[in-house]
Amino acid sequence: MNRAAFELALVSTHLPTLAVVTVQASGDPSLLDAETPVYDFFGDGMGGFSDEFASHIRNEADRVLWPIITGAAQPAPLPDDAMLKRMVIWLAGGEVPDHYLPFLLEELALDGRDRRAPAAIEARKLSAIVCGAGMSGLLAAHRLRQAGVEVTIVEANGDVGGTWYLNRYPGVRVDTPNHLYSYSFEPNHDWPEFYSQGDVLLGYFQRFARAHGLYEVTRFDTRVEHARWDGARWQVETSGGTLSADIFVSAVGQLNQPRYPDIPGRQDFAGPAFHSARWDDGVDLTGKRVAVIGTGASAFQFVPAIVDRVVHMDVFQRSAPWLGPTDNYHDPVPEGFQWAVEHIPAYDKWYRFWLFWMLTDGVLPNVRVDDGWNGPEHTIGAANAELRAALIEKIEAQLADRRDLLDRVIPNYVLGGKRSLRDNGVWLRAIAREHVDLVTTPIERIVADGVVTADGVHRPADVLIYGTGFHASNFLGSFRVTGSGGVDLHDRWAGDPRAYLGLMVPDFPNFFMVYGPNTNIVVNGSIIFLSECGVNYIVEAARLIAERGPVSVKPHVHDAFNARVDAENARMAWGQPGVSSWYKGANGRVTQNWPFALVDYWAATRAPNPDDLIAA
Ligand code: NAP
């Protein structure tokens, strides 16, 4: 073992995590007595320890961990539940409600067991068709196969990866920390960056698919056209013929149909024009005048990545994004940190746990309405107003030399109304460049050689790039689904998609969605976690199907669930009447978001309650 690398690890690791792994390895909790981590929202996450305590942690880690790493000593046995609870609470930096503990300990998986792996389904051999080989579809297929279900995946693209396969624009990267954005049971120890880039993510999902035999069961370049329940099974018509199975799972994601804006003259543009999710690598942007429409999560990443290449860029903004300070957003994982993830026992698990907790439900009060709140415009509560003011201060600090931009970059809607973007300064630096104009006058029309705004100004462009998002509310918009008695899913929804737990719809037996309606999160957690929960439910429902035959959700259970979701979404920032976003459908209902705590989704998806379901 490399002593120099270990010493580097001691100074580059996440200190609170280092303390906890030292306690675990020694079995001696006294390190937890001296100081408790305090996490400042805008801080470095290191716990705010005194210098003395920080060096004490490092000395203890050296004394305890090095002999274990070199094989000269054995680690203490795994902590018992009481000790684990103490470690969890200490690392979290505060009280953790009791009902969170089983949920957190499952996520932590300290014993290395895949605690979410399903037991084999014994009653009957089932088959399933999974539509989509992205993050959720691969997961659903893998878990169903683990339970003994015969799975076929149907994938429209030529490879796995879904969003990471399709979104290849310059600068694309994950905006959830990577040591968390991975399957809980499939850790990756060599993320090159804290928020790795698209090709790295694609590689992770390709490796996962390869390791679990999922390529062999996938029909690539094949589109589902119509899935039909025939009274006993699903008949799935695809571009490559009809397949049949007991269960049909849609895992097509919420953000896979690019949305082009409805701006007059769009077809008249004579130069190259493309959407961020269909980036055209054949178009050389060097020395070009580029018009970018949209300032959401995608534009936020590709604008800074291309700004040096272009001779001029007009960025057309309808709403300014909220910016969440994230200093390490583009940072490589330092060598010592990397070494710790790979070699310090349980470091990877506790660090992931810490990220999980920091991004979990503690942030929700910042974006929830305080009853009776009567504060400033565009605020919904005390915590929301305080955070808003702090974020505006951070924006102002970045634009000391460009005060003229402030009016345009400070959002005029409630914080949390849309997903905040991770900011390490590159966005505002790009926008402030001399050859970039942030245009907030509405677009009137697109013409052959540029864009004309409502004030009559013609802005010439050689290339037009749409960062205008996706048809998010058009769930499963690329195919038909027909349930019992010939009911059509899209007719049933009538533009207002809803489901029970995002998973099931009445009269659609043995049909499930992953990342379906109201399972998106805005401020808390990783979407992979939600998918793991949903897939857990699907596999347990499959067990019930094998034992009792086809099932669908009872209408009153579905309706009562949606009423609860709607009531809670109305209390959240993204549900406020003045906020417009892709989270809302045409009728203004929030169709995308899960408004409750993550622990609630976890608890609701442990297993189906047979009383909620009806035999088909
Ligand atoms: P988006 O967030 O929906 O942003 C679309 C942008 O286009 C918005 O600024 C929108 O303005 C603007 N726009 C739409 N129609 C317009 C029109 N007719 N005229 C002018 N502007 C128009 O789409 P996105 O940036 O592709 O991101 C979608 C979602 O994908 C994100 O919220 C996130 O969940 C996910 N995503 C994640 C990552 C990541 O993790 N790294 C990266 C990219 C995307 P308004 O805001 O006024 O509607």
From TrEMBL:
Q: Which domain of life is it from?
A: Bacteria
Task: Name the InterPro entries on file.
Answer: FAD-bind_Monooxygenase_sf, FAD/NAD-bd_sf
Output this protein's name: NAD(P)/FAD-dependent oxidoreductase
Species assigned in the record:
Sandaracinobacteroides saxicola
